[in-house]
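Hi V.,

Quick status before I head out on leave. The structure for the redesign project is tokenized and pasted below; the design run finished overnight.
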């Protein structure tokens, strides 16, 4: 394995993050709002539909991880999945943001099927892509550097999936398109952009390519053929049990348990904040689509600015310290902001910057720490199961996103949010302020207080995380 990677390789790998971040931020920021205020689905049902998709991803992710771990082609383990997922990503994202004129039952079925297909295509690219990073380098700091490049390109995906949708809707409606048609254009644009980025990444990085006559490839094919013959005819249920057994083995690793718990807590916080922020800005603040786009730009570009600082701090101290302090302190400040009345653009910007610090710490450092755990698991088992480790972590992500979406959907329902009122996505003005006071209060809580509590808990859990640069190097020396 190459310890040091060229800038070209890091850029090529990083481009792939445009895809998953586009899809992740698009669904996380706008899906619940779209389903309720454009498609006309009741909030609790919309939350359930969103949660079903995330649970489905939790089931599909491990399968993709296992398949990519055991795939042997001249293109490597991961590339075939990424290339195959490109077209479904584009088509299904478009369908998900297509409004249909039908009754509640038909709408429920349509969007449930669409979101299942959406998360299936997402898993097909996300798990192999993330696992690919562990295949490219085993250097402790190089992994952080690789993820820094990915995070920067991920911000481009965030720009596409989080900033541009309101701009596209505003432009489309100004030229005479309906709200529904405008959001279908959003789905098409985001889907095509994500699929294109995926193909560019898969085709531009050559590190895992192997020539047809490569001796290593010939050996790997022979091993996989023997393994395939050995397991031929194994019942699907038995295969599922084998995956669960592998997960149980991974969960025995102490670092995995701590990082998994911290990751789950953060992702609930992230889901609440990301899915609620447009509700808060439109219903509580009465902001226009242009103002919302500006806030999304602040989050996007501040993330890029924070990347080199987080990389430098991680080298001077350690990934664990920066991860724990960055997210924990951001949570404390977000909780404090709930006691202060957020009034105007400056308050929104302040909260968004706090969130951006935490978000940059998580998405830049968590994958790097997962790669460390994948290496530890390989040292323990004697075999590489990076796909299984990544898919296990992705499974927890999916479950937590489902929990966060369902919590927000229930909060909106119980607080009296009325989806039948005029949509702020369709028109500006006082319509955005017509929601009951109880609904506005809980939208505000979901924007600051609740995410802040979960972020503080992340910092508490990470106190017990045992992996540092020194401890990992000591383990390597011990296993030699």
């Amino acid at each position: 394995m190459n310890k040091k990677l060229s800038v070209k390789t890091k850029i090529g790998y990083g481009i792939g993050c445009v895809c998953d971040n586009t899809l992740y931020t698009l669904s996380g920021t706008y899906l619940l709002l779209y389903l309720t205020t454009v498609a006309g689905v009741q909030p609790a049902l919309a939350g359930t539909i969103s949660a079903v998709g995330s649970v489905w991803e939790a089931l599909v992710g491990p399968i993709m991880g296992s398949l990519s771990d055991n795939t042997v082609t001249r293109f490597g383990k991961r590339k075939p999945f990424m290339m195959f997922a490109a077209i479904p990503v584009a088509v299904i994202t478009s369908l998900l943001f297509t409004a249909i004129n039908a009754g509640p039952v038909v709408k429920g079925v349509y969007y449930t099927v669409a979101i299942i297909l959406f998360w299936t295509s997402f898993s097909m690219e996300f798990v192999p892509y993330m696992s690919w990073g562990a295949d490219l380098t085993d250097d402790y700091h190089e992994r952080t550097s690789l993820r820094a490049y990915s995070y920067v390109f991920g911000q481009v995906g965030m720009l596409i999936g989080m900033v541009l949708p309101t701009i596209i809707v505003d432009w489309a409606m100004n030229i005479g398109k309906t709200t529904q048609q405008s959001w279908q254009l959003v789905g098409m644009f985001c889907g095509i952009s994500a699929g294109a980025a995926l193909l560019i990444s898969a085709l531009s990085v050559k590190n895992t390519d192997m020539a047809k006559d490569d001796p290593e490839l010939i050996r790997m094919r022979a091993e996989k053929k023997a393994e395939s013959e050995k397991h031929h005819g194994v019942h699907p249920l038995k295969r599922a049990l084998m995956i669960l057994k592998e997960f149980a083995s991974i969960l025995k690793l102490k670092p995995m348990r701590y990082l998994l718990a911290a990751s789950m807590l953060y992702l609930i916080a992230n889901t609440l904040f990301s899915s609620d922020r447009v509700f808060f800005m439109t219903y509580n603040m009465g902001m226009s689509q242009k103002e919302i786009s500006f806030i999304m730009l602040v989050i996007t570009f501040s993330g890029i600015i924070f990347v080199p600082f987080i990389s430098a701090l991680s080298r001077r101290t350690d990934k664990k310290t920066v991860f724990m302090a960055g997210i924990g302190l951001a949570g404390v400040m977000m909780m404090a902001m709930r006691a202060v009345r957020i009034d105007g653009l400056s308050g929104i910007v302040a909260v968004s910057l706090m969130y951006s610090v935490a978000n940059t710490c998580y998405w830049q450092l968590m994958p790097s720490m997962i790669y460390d755990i994948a290496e530890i698991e390989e040292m323990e088992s004697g075999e590489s199961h990076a796909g299984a480790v990544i898919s296990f972590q992705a499974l927890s992500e999916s479950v937590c996103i489902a929990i966060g979406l369902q919590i927000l959907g229930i909060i909106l329902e119980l607080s009296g949010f009325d989806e039948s009122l005029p949509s702020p996505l369709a028109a500006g003005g006082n319509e955005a302020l017509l929601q009951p006071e109880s609904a506005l209060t809980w939208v505000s809580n979901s924007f600051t207080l609740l995410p802040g509590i979960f972020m503080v808990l992340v910092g508490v859990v990470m106190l017990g995380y045992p992996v540092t640069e020194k401890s990992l190097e000591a383990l390597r020396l011990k296993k030699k």
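Above is the designed sequence. The two ends are 16 Å apart (CA to CA).

G. will cover questions while I'm gone.

Best,
W.
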